[in-house]
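cron nightly-structures :: item 1 of 1
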Amino acid sequence: MDKYIESELVEYKNICGIDEVGRGSLFGPVVAAAIIMNLDDVIDEVNDSKKITRKKRILLAREIEEKSLAVGIGIVDNKTIDKINIKQATRLAMKLALEDMIQKFNINPGIVLIDAENIDSHIKQKSIVHGDSLSYNIAAASIYAKVFRDNMIIKLAEEFPYYSLETNMGYGTKKHYEGLLKYGKTIFHRESFLKKDIR
């Protein structure tokens, strides 16, 4: 536990970590997770979700859910992203995830650790740059949010098979752009993220 920032925050009970996924995607929502992990039962392999294979993330997400004290999800759809911009949408998803966690588990965090963001909340918070590498709770949230959102996109890929969504998760790969140029946008694409000739 010493390698994580939580070891410096022992005066706080119920440390919550929040992270988001899907910020740079052309398609679908931005999703955030808020998690309070049991710091007496640390999962050694928890790390920044981008450094872990999909197969491993799926296994870890299950273990994270089992060993967490509380977990919540916040989802902000593509229409809202277009309306309020991605930065505000990210903050909103994080706030919704925190509220979801508190409501579902009736638990109040002593402090909220957020990956390089601030949210509108009365609860004490700490913004940590590279938080998904430095904080155990943020890393757990990053894995959980990633697996949750990937599952959403993979399901939508069955409905919209022309964009290779099951492999790019909505990000702007060559195959995704080829699909956009040939078939146009879907109701789940973020208009504000698309090139002018596709909008």
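cron nightly-structures :: done
The helical segments are 54-67, 78-84, 86-105, 131-134, 136-159, 165-168, 174-183.
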